[in-house]
Structures are given as C-alpha cells and as structure tokens.
Predict the structure.
Amino acid sequence: MATQHFLTLSDLDQQALFQVLDRASALKVAQQSGQSVLSLPQRVLAMIFEKSSTRTRVSFEAGIHQLGGSAIFLSPTDTQLGRGEPLSDTARVLSEMVDAVMIRTDLHEKLEIFSRYAKIPVINGLSDSCHPCQLLADLQTIIAKFGQISDLKVAWIGDGNNVCQTYCEAAGLFGFDLIIAGPPAYQPDPSWVKLGKGRVQFSTDPIAAVKGAHVVTTDVWASMGQESEVRERRAALAPYQVTESLLEQAADDVMFLHCLPAHRGEEISDTLLDDPRTEWVWIQAGNRLHAQKALLEYLILGQV
Ligand code: CP
Ligand code: NVA
C-alpha cells in the first residue's frame, strides 16, 4: 500500500478529513476527561523545523507523547541537512528509523522531494504555500461551534498568504463560501484559488466582506521569510486591520479565528484579543493538539 502523506489538505479526501476531525473531537473529550489513549506506543515522530514555531512544535511533541510515542526535534543548524546532505538521502535514512516525519520549511517543493523518497508518512507543518495542519484545527473549531462547515460564510481579511491559500483549498473541499478582502497585489496564487471550486470571491472592502460572515479570520501581514517586506506590507495592508468595530458588521454569532502568532496593532487592533467574540482563538490553538493526534493515528496506523 502506498504511504499516505499530508502535504496538502487534499491529500486526504473529504470523507477521510471528516474521519480525522471526528476522531480529533473524541481525543479531545478523552484528554479533557483524563482518559489515556495509548494508540501509538513506541512510535517516533521526527520533526524538522527550518522555521520558528511554538504551536506546531509543542502540539506535535505533546501529541505523540500523549499517544504513547515520542518526538525528535531536528533543526538545520544541528543536523547534516544544514551542511548540505540532500533531502532525498535524509528521507531514506529517517525512513529506516522513525515512523513519521513532520517538516516545516519554505519551499513546498522540498516537502514533495522528501516525500518522494520517504517510506513513512510526511506531514507538512507549514510551507510558503500552505498550512494544512492549521486548517484541521480551524475546521475542528468551526464545526465545534456551528455543528457543520458547508454553507457557512468565511471572511479572510488581509494578506493572501499560505494560511489563506489553505482556506481556498478547504472551501473547495468542504463547500463553504470564502471571501478574501485585501489589496489586489496580495491575493493568493490563482492555482490555490482554483482549488476553491468557485467558492472563493474577492473584495477590496473589508466591511462589505465581513457582512453576514459566520467566521472572520486573518493572519500576519508579513509571514516568516518576508521580513524584508514588512514596511511596504504594513502600508498596503493597513486598511485591512480587524477591529472590534469591523466584527460588528459580521453575523451576530461571528467567530473570530487567528492561527497565531498575532501582531497587535497590525492585522488586529491592540485590544481585539480581549474581546469575548475572539475567545475561540485560544480553543483553535488548543485544537492543534487534538487534530494532529488524530492525523498521526490516521497516517501511522492507516485508520482513526
Ligand atoms: N499557527 C502556527 O503554526 O503557529 P506556530 O508558528 O507557533 O507553530
Ligand atoms: N503566515 C504565517 C503563519 C504562521 C503560523 C507565516 O507563514 O509566517
């Protein structure tokens, strides 16, 4: 049987994604009631981080530990990857030693090369193109509040970045309406918009975009790797800050999400995360743990 990787959300079909999301909710209930689930005893996850992380690192490491396994953190500075050992060789070596590999990197092609040579599941922990693990947690969070995801209106405000591109993909897979409000120069790549299967629309007016939205979400204006563009991005994206008054324009029961880390005074107002309408952000972050535990079970055991 071919090894199942998770480089993009669409590596799993809608049915498999729902299975993972259902299992994530069950694992969350188990965790919160103090029940141990030791479904991955002795299993080892290698985690290659070429970029910084708090949530992804901690959720994967805590997650596999809670399931009875363990994780190894690898950074380019202290592995041979940083001295030029090819990804293809590293993939073949790690395949002999561990049960799955999670990689956070810049170029998505690096994940594709690695997975071509790996005999074990490879998980995208964020690339410049997409962040599928984030969307698992976001979908789990949205379903927890609204009971479903299709037919909701989701408004993305700001930069059309890697997380936004994964929202486009999710809109096509799950059938929700996604409206992206931002400057035309910062829209997601058309190849990702196409994955939205006609459910993605654009606006340059954040107020119009959030009208009636059930979910309003945003992310930093300069992603990791775009540090040299901070000034021009701040100027271009300034009209797209999510504020308390912008949320007033959305549906009465609007849910605000942010993948975090957040930059107060940029993509969100200084005080937005103190508003009760934004409290789901912390649940969203916590769901990274449960969603990825379900994903690890699915990829390593071939089931949930
Ligand atoms: N949202 C997210 O992936 O956070 P980290 O960069 O802290 O992992
Ligand atoms: N778009 C952000 C997401 C961080 C989790 C980045 O790539 O830096």
User: Anything to note?
Assistant: Residues 130 and 162 are 4 Å apart (CA to CA). The chain has two domains: 9-131+286-301, 134-284. Strands lie at 44-49, 70-74, 100-104, 122-124, 153-157, 177-181, 200-203, 215-218, 255-258.
